[in-house]
Amino acid sequence: MTQRRVLRRWLGAACAAALAVCAPALARAETAPARVVSMNLCTDQLAMLIADKDQLHSVSYLAADPGASVLAARARAYVANHGLAEEIFLMRPDLVIAGTYTTRTTVALLRRLGFRVEEFAPETGFDDVRQNIARMGAILNRQERAAMLLADLNAGLVALAASPAQGSVAVYSSNSYTVGPGSLADAVIAETGLDNIAASLGIFGAGRLPLESLIAADPDLVVTGARRFDSPALAQENFRHPAFRAFAHQVAEVEIPDKYWLCGAPFTLIAARILKQAMDDRQRAARNE
Predict the structure, then answer these.
(1) How does pLDDT run across 42-73, given as a tens digit for each residue?
(2) Contacts of 5 (CB under 8 A, 6+ apart)
(3) Contact partners, residue 287, CB within 8 Å, separation at least 6
(4) Which of 39, 56, 86, 146 is most buried, by CB atoms within 10 Å?
(5) What is the pTM of this model?
(6) d(CA 26, CA 45)
(7) Domain layout of the chain by residue ranges
(8) Structural fold of domain 164-288
(9) Does domain 3-121 match CATH 3.40.50.1980?
């Protein structure tokens, strides 16, 4: 029997089994799901923050990566998944949560098998963060917990607005990447009161920032991401360039771990606080010179 026939036979049996397993779950769509699987780093973290005890069964393997996930230690308490349809199927979830860019093949197959799949788009601003928190609370039937997180987020934003920072900032990451309007990191920068030079350079979303453009823009603060790789990497060569090293000595430089603004949640405010503190320290040092 060929592998293709085996796969077709497996899918046929899986479809029949899945319909039997999932029909009751679909009928209970208005009640709290009892066995939830998340396949996306950002939905992983929102689910971990909002889900009730024992409600969340599995998160993606990325959730346990301390370089990418704020909740890496907590994620180790859950079963890890790699976004594969066969492993999700065997977990028998009554709700699967994914990102809009999560592997499309897996999402499509799970829906064909009758599983309820809810997709979340990446956040590009704090309105998106609020909407995703509220929606996660709704689909998990944990509205009160979501409301608590929203209150924390809003209180943090109010505190930032009460004492805005002043000055310009550039994000300069591995491979010379930066972020501009249309990204969550840019929204974080805006909430601190700082100006992101990317917009003035015509960079929207994510794009490369030539070293010459960075130096010519002369921002008050340069934000770098993760710069401590386990082994040498070509992606880090931009930080070793003599011109960057000389420039970095002339301006304030701050490292914000990528995990704080990869995903939107109340913890995203940590990136804003690091950024604001760095600018406050720079201005304080300038006054004391």
Answers:
(1) 999 999 999 999 999 999 999 999 999 999 99
(2) none
(3) none
(4) 39
(5) 0.85
(6) 24
(7) 3-121, 164-288
(8) Rossmann fold (3.40.50)
(9) yes
